Amino acid sequence: MAGNLFGKMAADTLGLSDIGKIISPKDFDKVDGDDYIMNEDGEKIYFVIKSKSDEYVFTNRGLLHVDGTSAVSKKRVVKRHDFYYEKVHSVTLETAGTIDLDIEIKFSFGNNSFSIDVDKKQLEQLKDLYKALVEIGRIQGKNSTSIEDGMNGLKMANEAISRSSLQGNASEIVKELTNFNFNWMQNIRNEYNNKDFGYVFEKYINN
């Protein structure tokens, strides 16, 4: 145990560990991820965790992961995870024990899982991110239920129509029904599939 603790402390002292630091908002423009933000579309940074090899940039639109191969390599791969396409789930926060140097937040965007070690001195700030991600996941879950209910309602209506005797031009009826179905599905997705969760970050993130 003593050997492991000494090794971990030495790695952190020498700058070889990969414990992330939460970046102050005044320094958001200095992180690599800032270069890839869609400012033209109203994207805004709310939270950044930076380690020796990676950056995790949380915006109103999702997560921008600047993935480094190692602390000494300049090679980076930029990966985007949008709230519109991927649901947040399995959010957990692990606090530090007496001898731990770091705390850990875990979460998933769709099928992509993340585990980020953060300096334990920044626990209070990390709690804010934890709460924001949990709330976003809850909202996405409720939205998915609403979309599913809306689609099921449309399906039942179409089945009822198919059993009815309709009068008029068959091709025109089919065309109108197709357009109605398309518009219904588009409207329900637009209403219940959020692209922007800036309001959630503004509620929980105390910068």
Keywords:
207 residues; alpha+beta; PH-domain like; 5-stranded antiparallel beta sheet; 4 helices; 8 strands; Bacterial PH domain; YvbH_oligomer_dom; PHb; PHb_sf
Helix content: 25-40%
Terminal CA distance: 37 Å
CATH-level-4 superfamily name = Bacterial Pleckstrin homology domain
Structural class: alpha+beta
Strand content: 15-25%
Structural domain count:
1
Anisotropy-based shape: elongated
Largest sheet: 5 strands, antiparallel
Secondary structure tally, helices: 4
What is the averaged pLDDT score?
Answer: 83
Q: For the CA atoms, what is the radius of gyration?
A: 23 Å
* Number of DSSP strand runs: 8
Q: Strands of the biggest beta sheet: in what spatial order?
A: 1-2-3-4-5
Uncertain runs with pLDDT below 50, 5 residues or more?
9-16
Query: What top-tier CATH class fits best?
Result: Mainly Beta
The H-and-E topology, N to C, reads as HEEEEEEEEHHH
Q: What is the CATH third-level topology name?
A: PH-domain like
Q: What is the CATH architecture term?
A: Roll
